[in-house]
Amino acid sequence: MTAPVEPLAPVRLPWLASVALVNLGTYVAFFGPLAVLLPQQTEAVVGDGKETALAVVTGVGAAISMVANPLFGALSDRTRARAGRRVPWITAGSLVGALGLTILSGASEFWQVVVGWCLVQASVNASLAAITATLPDRVPVAQRAWAGGLVGLGQTLGILVGAGLAIAFGGTRGGYLACAAFLLLSALPYLARSDDRPHVDRVPFSARQFTRSFWVSPTEHPDFAWAWLTRFVVNLGNAIATLYLLYFLTDAVGLADPDGGVFIVIAVNSVVVAISAVVAGRWSDRVGRRKVFVVWAGIVMALAALLLAFWQTWPGVLVAAVVLGVGFGAFLAVDLAIVTEVLPDEAGFAKDLGVINIANALPQVIAPVIAAPIVTLLGGYTTLYVTAAVVGLVGALSVVRIRGVS
Q: pTM to 2 decimals?
């Protein structure tokens, strides 16, 4: 492939907003189910053993995600459609993702829940891989932390909007269908004004070369490897902490309305994350520093987890949501900027970002394996949140090993 040149023209806010909206739609499809709908549906379908059953659903779905994101990213990089490299995958991913959510809306057996969720994970990751690649495709380095902050809002607001839709439309059926509709609508502004650029070179396909391209040697590209490890370990700590939020509010905090409590926690956290991401992204671009923001973000997130470990009351949960928002917002914005600056293959942005996104999906596979026995056998939620604090802090400190970013 012919490597694209570094984009020089600053991107405009309307285009960036349309990218952020696609990102928001994909995360609504992820987090509406994860935050409220899947826990409710799993408990209704299996009854006792809900923790283990939810771990199976989320773990299998995350395993699908881990494969789908880099695979569809690599296919996006090679796409020669007249509409562009990214548009076909965003379109197909949104349509099939809405189908998967519709299947979930009518699922009454556990196997149906697993199949529906796997279809959502596979398809929506195709859209996510393509839309994420538009940042290194189009955004100059000097704007990337700010752009990362705005696009990263999709992840945070996706939790809020997804949980809000799940609660507002009353139960799993209406919640899933509302998330499906939002996923489709969120893609329309970008598809209408994408200015996506087709890949014009015809590249001979080799299955062996295609498969080998997913391996990025840590010895040849150490900065990429440390960026991957940083994101993986921080996300593992976050996944351990958030997997059982609904059950934590029910069983440990004793909240009378845990569903409403989940929404309030998400809303508070989302507002703070939004502010922190934009402020930290702008600040990082202005001073030209990245790693110090990630380190401090990790310290703040660890503090939030410790608050949950030792202050298991409703006020404690709200304070922790604010503290976590400050740290996670900064991490979202600046970590994404770091990642785009250490991508090893300029002709394969979506593929390499897909490999990076394994660091988002793999923790969802591992976290249930760690969290379930901790909650049921090894000390409950106090031990769980102390573990999350330690893991997340170790991950954030790993960023100092990246040499090519200041």
A: 0.74
